[in-house]
Amino acid sequence: MNHQTNISNSNKSYLMSKGFMHVGYWKKTREELDYSLEKKWAKIPGIYVFIDSNDQILYIGRTVKNLETALDRIQRGHETQVTNHRIHNHLLAYLEKPLSVEIFAHANQKEHADLAAFFDDFKTELLQRTSPIWNLQ
Predict the structure, then answer these.
(1) Is 37 left (phi over 0), alpha (psi -120 to 50) or beta?
(2) What is the pLDDT confidence band of residue 130, given thresholds at 50, 70 and 90?
(3) How buried is residue 98: exposed, middle or buried, by Cβ count under 10 Å (0-12/13-18/19+)?
(4) What is the mean pLDDT of the chain?
(5) Which of 53, 92, 47, 39 is nearest to 70 (CA)?
(6) For the chain, which terminal residue's Cβ has fewer other Cβ atoms within 10 angstroms, N or C?
(7) Percentage of residues in the chain with pLDDT exceeding 70?
(8) E strands along the chain, which residues?
(9) What residue ranges do the domains of the chain occupy?
(10) What pLDDT shows up at residue 137?
Protein backbone atom coordinates (compact mmCIF):
# COMPACT_ATOMS: atom_id res chain seq x y z
CA MET A 1 0.00 0.00 0.00
CA ASN A 2 1.24 3.45 -0.86
CA HIS A 3 1.54 5.64 2.25
CA GLN A 4 0.87 8.78 0.24
CA THR A 5 -2.51 7.66 -1.08
CA ASN A 6 -3.89 5.30 1.55
CA ILE A 7 -5.23 7.10 4.58
CA SER A 8 -8.40 5.33 5.80
CA ASN A 9 -9.12 4.30 2.19
CA SER A 10 -9.29 7.87 0.98
CA ASN A 11 -7.33 11.04 1.59
CA LYS A 12 -10.49 13.09 1.04
CA SER A 13 -12.31 11.04 3.68
CA TYR A 14 -9.40 11.50 6.07
CA LEU A 15 -9.38 15.27 5.52
CA MET A 16 -13.13 15.52 6.02
CA SER A 17 -12.85 13.48 9.23
CA LYS A 18 -10.41 16.15 10.47
CA GLY A 19 -12.86 18.97 9.72
CA PHE A 20 -11.74 19.95 6.22
CA MET A 21 -14.24 21.00 3.57
CA HIS A 22 -14.06 21.19 -0.21
CA VAL A 23 -13.85 24.94 -0.93
CA GLY A 24 -12.66 25.26 -4.53
CA TYR A 25 -10.36 24.09 -7.28
CA TRP A 26 -7.42 25.15 -9.45
CA LYS A 27 -7.75 25.50 -13.22
CA LYS A 28 -5.62 26.56 -16.14
CA THR A 29 -7.03 29.03 -18.63
CA ARG A 30 -4.88 29.47 -21.72
CA GLU A 31 -1.42 29.66 -20.18
CA GLU A 32 -2.50 31.18 -16.87
CA LEU A 33 -3.27 29.68 -13.50
CA ASP A 34 -6.63 30.47 -11.92
CA TYR A 35 -8.74 29.19 -9.07
CA SER A 36 -12.33 29.12 -7.93
CA LEU A 37 -13.05 29.60 -4.22
CA GLU A 38 -16.31 29.67 -2.28
CA LYS A 39 -16.76 33.29 -1.19
CA LYS A 40 -17.43 32.45 2.46
CA TRP A 41 -13.89 31.01 2.69
CA ALA A 42 -12.08 33.96 1.10
CA LYS A 43 -11.36 35.97 4.26
CA ILE A 44 -10.77 33.10 6.68
CA PRO A 45 -7.35 32.01 7.97
CA GLY A 46 -6.63 28.31 8.05
CA ILE A 47 -4.90 25.27 6.67
CA TYR A 48 -5.44 24.39 3.02
CA VAL A 49 -4.76 21.25 1.03
CA PHE A 50 -4.43 20.68 -2.71
CA ILE A 51 -5.55 17.18 -3.74
CA ASP A 52 -5.83 15.74 -7.23
CA SER A 53 -8.61 13.72 -8.84
CA ASN A 54 -6.66 10.52 -8.07
CA ASP A 55 -6.88 11.32 -4.32
CA GLN A 56 -3.17 12.24 -4.13
CA ILE A 57 -2.42 14.99 -1.60
CA LEU A 58 -0.15 17.42 -3.42
CA TYR A 59 0.43 20.27 -0.98
CA ILE A 60 -0.50 21.41 2.52
CA GLY A 61 -0.20 25.08 3.43
CA ARG A 62 -1.41 27.43 6.12
CA THR A 63 -2.29 31.09 6.36
CA VAL A 64 -3.01 33.29 9.37
CA LYS A 65 -4.23 36.09 7.09
CA ASN A 66 -6.85 34.64 4.76
CA LEU A 67 -7.21 31.91 2.18
CA GLU A 68 -7.82 34.26 -0.74
CA THR A 69 -4.52 36.09 -0.15
CA ALA A 70 -2.61 32.81 0.09
CA LEU A 71 -4.14 31.50 -3.15
CA ASP A 72 -3.58 34.84 -4.92
CA ARG A 73 0.12 34.66 -4.07
CA ILE A 74 0.36 31.13 -5.45
CA GLN A 75 -1.62 32.17 -8.53
CA ARG A 76 0.86 34.99 -9.26
CA GLY A 77 3.85 32.82 -8.36
CA HIS A 78 6.26 35.74 -8.02
CA GLU A 79 9.88 34.55 -8.16
CA THR A 80 10.82 36.36 -4.92
CA GLN A 81 8.30 34.24 -3.02
CA VAL A 82 10.12 30.95 -3.41
CA THR A 83 7.46 28.56 -2.11
CA ASN A 84 4.61 30.30 -3.93
CA HIS A 85 6.66 30.32 -7.14
CA ARG A 86 7.46 26.60 -6.78
CA ILE A 87 3.83 25.61 -6.10
CA HIS A 88 2.63 27.86 -8.95
CA ASN A 89 4.94 26.03 -11.38
CA HIS A 90 3.89 22.61 -10.05
CA LEU A 91 0.22 23.54 -10.56
CA LEU A 92 0.81 24.80 -14.11
CA ALA A 93 2.60 21.58 -15.06
CA TYR A 94 0.11 19.37 -13.24
CA LEU A 95 -2.93 20.94 -14.89
CA GLU A 96 -1.49 19.95 -18.29
CA LYS A 97 -2.42 16.39 -17.31
CA PRO A 98 -6.02 15.24 -17.43
CA LEU A 99 -6.29 15.72 -13.66
CA SER A 100 -8.10 18.27 -11.57
CA VAL A 101 -6.72 19.86 -8.41
CA GLU A 102 -9.24 20.50 -5.66
CA ILE A 103 -8.81 22.83 -2.70
CA PHE A 104 -9.82 21.69 0.77
CA ALA A 105 -9.61 23.99 3.80
CA HIS A 106 -9.91 23.84 7.56
CA ALA A 107 -10.69 26.95 9.53
CA ASN A 108 -10.42 26.83 13.27
CA GLN A 109 -13.45 28.50 14.79
CA LYS A 110 -11.97 28.63 18.30
CA GLU A 111 -9.87 31.46 19.61
CA HIS A 112 -6.19 30.70 20.11
CA ALA A 113 -3.64 33.03 21.65
CA ASP A 114 -1.16 32.03 18.96
CA LEU A 115 -3.08 31.10 15.81
CA ALA A 116 0.12 30.57 13.80
CA ALA A 117 1.46 28.06 16.34
CA PHE A 118 -1.86 26.21 16.40
CA PHE A 119 -1.93 25.97 12.59
CA ASP A 120 1.73 24.95 12.46
CA ASP A 121 1.14 22.09 14.92
CA PHE A 122 -1.92 20.88 12.99
CA LYS A 123 -0.11 21.23 9.65
CA THR A 124 2.87 19.24 11.00
CA GLU A 125 0.54 16.43 12.06
CA LEU A 126 -1.02 16.36 8.57
CA LEU A 127 2.38 16.45 6.84
CA GLN A 128 3.60 13.48 8.86
CA ARG A 129 0.41 11.54 8.21
CA THR A 130 -0.05 12.23 4.47
CA SER A 131 3.40 12.99 2.94
CA PRO A 132 2.24 15.47 0.25
CA ILE A 133 4.49 15.38 -2.81
CA TRP A 134 5.01 19.16 -3.19
CA ASN A 135 5.87 19.97 0.43
CA LEU A 136 9.60 20.08 1.12
CA GLN A 137 10.22 18.03 4.23
Answers:
(1) beta
(2) confident
(3) exposed
(4) 85
(5) 47
(6) N
(7) 87
(8) 21-29, 32-37, 46-52, 57-63, 101-106
(9) 11-130
(10) 63
Virtual torsion, Cα 124, 61, 110, 67, nearest 10 deg: 180
Residue 31 is predicted with a pLDDT of: 79
Residues 51, 41: Cα–Cα separation, whole Å: 17
pLDDT tens string 90-107: 999 999 887 899 999 986
Q: Is the dihedral of CA 55, 75, 23, 100 positive or negative?
A: negative
11-130 belongs to CATH 3.40.1440.50 = yes
What pTM does this model have? Answer: 0.84
Specify whether the CB–CB gap between 24 and 41 falls below 8 A: yes
Under 8 Å between Cβ of 132 and 60: yes
